Amino acid sequence: MNALSWTWIWMGRVNGASWGESLAACGMWNPKKKRSFLWQRVGPNQSHPRIIMSCGCFGASTLKKKRSPSLTPNEIDGFPLDNVKSFSDKDLRLATDNYHPSKKIGRGGFGTVYQGTLKDGRQVAVKTLSAGSKQGVREFLSEIKTISNVKHPNLVELVGCCVQETNRILVYEYVQNNSLDRALLGGRGSNIILDWRKRSGICMGTARGLAFLHEELVPHIVHRDIKASNILLDRHFNPKIGDFGLAKLFPDDITHISTRIAGTTGYLAPEYAMGGQLTLKADVYSFGVLILEIISGKSSARTNWGGSNKYLLEWAWQLYEEGKLLELVDPDMVEFPEEEVIRYAKVAFFCTQAAASRRPMMSQVVDMLSKNTRLNEKQITAPGFFQDSGASSQKKSSFGSTSYQFSSNPSSITQLAPR
């Protein structure tokens, strides 16, 4: 057999076929017959170049087509999804017992979340997006592809999605200890005790996750809805930020600002709530409020702190002004390092300054929390906050010798006076 014959056979072999399969692909070999077509037509001592090369090319092409299905990327409607799995509605109904109420583990502005178990036994969180997310399939998948490429230890991983008729469903990794608000704010069935080590770790991990979204991703992602219910805790109480990137899937008129979802108002940066000025610094503000919640174990959405209908940020600032910041600490925390707790509270005030330009970047916040940066209290200016409807009449509150007016309008921005 000459070199061209070996070339033809080799072309079949490199595609993973056996010697017989390489010959059979071109119809040159039949194991039931004594002589192959090639042997009969060319002969044992001949090798016609045109026959050999054409058969070789045809064989390679045939074998490649035969093997291609296993190499086809995961896709929906021709749109490739490299890092995310496509699920059918049937798959997810089976995983969640047809979305049984007992499987419901959360509800937010973007949809309802159910605990599910896939066929392979993997635990997942299945988020059925609300009707407002009904955008075009390709536009939706484009955003999902972006989210699926975002990987960080402090971000919830997107496992897959379902786009079937009007369904828009996301499948996330299941995070064992559920959301921070349940653990911290006394959600239903919560018996988790968070000591300072866990709380400080949650602050630091969340800061790192936000710093990654803001400064390491290109293009960056503004979360827009940082709050305790969007911080999930794994079995070791490491925080994972959920719902990042989802805001783009919804038109502006149905986001959390207009719907006034309970528990969100107290986190809103004033420039974002009133003027729609969405920047990275809006997330920084929300993170500052979150720190105060973690320290105090109290909700930022309620207005009954400090004995005179104050928001959490307002009350915390008053305690800071009066030199009584340790009174902010959750009474359930029996032991804690006082200096570190005070440091974290001061970082919260840096983050919630009324002027967005004065708030630090999240990478700076990470350094501030880790004691890598000396805090200059003289640089802290007064926080501002967004007050939603609920004030029935005008009221005054006084910190020291300075009075502050609160409006009875449905919503208003208030800046507390500086020190």
TrEMBL record:
GO terms for molecular function: ATP binding; protein serine/threonine kinase activity. Residues 409-419 have a biased composition (Polar residues). It holds the Pfam family PK_Tyr_Ser-Thr. ATP binds at K127. Residues 99-386 form the Protein kinase domain. Residues 1-16 form the signal peptide. Residues 384-419 are annotated as: Disordered. InterPro entries: CR_Ser/Thr_kinase (IPR052059), Kinase-like_dom_sf (IPR011009), Prot_kinase_dom (IPR000719), Protein_kinase_ATP_BS (IPR017441), Ser-Thr/Tyr_kinase_cat_dom (IPR001245), Ser/Thr_kinase_AS (IPR008271). GO terms for cellular component: membrane. Its main location: membrane. It comes from the Eukaryota. It is found in: Membrane. Keywords: ATP-binding, Glycoprotein, Kinase, Membrane, Nucleotide-binding, Phosphoprotein, Receptor, Repeat, Serine/threonine-protein kinase, Signal, Transferase, Transmembrane, Transmembrane helix. It is a single-pass membrane protein. CDD domains: STKc_IRAK. Residues 389-408 have a biased composition (Low complexity). This is Protein kinase domain-containing protein. It comes from Phaseolus coccineus.
